[in-house]
Write a structure and sequence with these properties.
The protein has 139 residues and is α+β, with helices and mostly antiparallel strands. It contains 4 helices and 5 strands. Strands 1-2-3-4-5 form a 5-stranded mixed sheet, with helices on both faces. Helix 3 links the parallel strand 4 and strand 5. Helix 1 packs across helix 2. The radius of gyration is 15 Å and the shape is globular.
């Protein structure tokens, strides 16, 4: 078992089967291109691999803003639905927390859809706090 950053096209594509469980609209044929585009804006892809298969994936960025200072924002965090309850999500989240600390971040945050009750339970069990409401509008 290892956690690493997806840097090669092969590693990025290895993450698709898991990421597509969270982001249902993704198309495999465009996945590498989309991730590479986002990487130009600071996006990184981390994955936990077991027996050469990605079982948990996180997309994240490091930002700086007036409200939080320097922080790591998790865009995407998902564990393969057939591999849940094996502590893979916890291990990947702990890796992200350590990564944030090692890169001088003061906070780690994420947004989670209001319908994702199991995810909310997981985040609260990991001692995360609900600190805001997220509002949006489609344009």
């Amino acid at each position: 078992m290892s956690i690493q950053l997806g840097e090669s096209d092969f590693q990025i594509l290895k993450c698709f089967p898991v990421m597509s469980q969270l982001r249902l609209h993704l198309e495999q044929a465009k996945f590498i291109e989309q991730v590479r585009y986002q990487m130009k804006e600071g996006y990184q892809l981390a994955f936990l691999e077991v027996e050469e298969q990605a079982v948990a994936v996180a997309g994240f960025r490091i930002y700086t803003c007036l409200a939080l200072g320097k922080f790591l924002y998790i865009d995407d965090l998902v564990v393969d639905e057939l591999k849940r309850s094996h502590s893979y999500g916890k291990q990947l989240l702990q890796w992200l927390i350590e990564y944030a600390r090692n890169h001088g971040c003061e906070h780690l945050s994420l947004d989670s859809g209001v319908q994702r009750f199991a995810a909310h339970r997981f985040y609260l069990m990991q001692r995360m706090n609900i600190t805001s409401h997220h509002f949006s509008i489609e344009l």
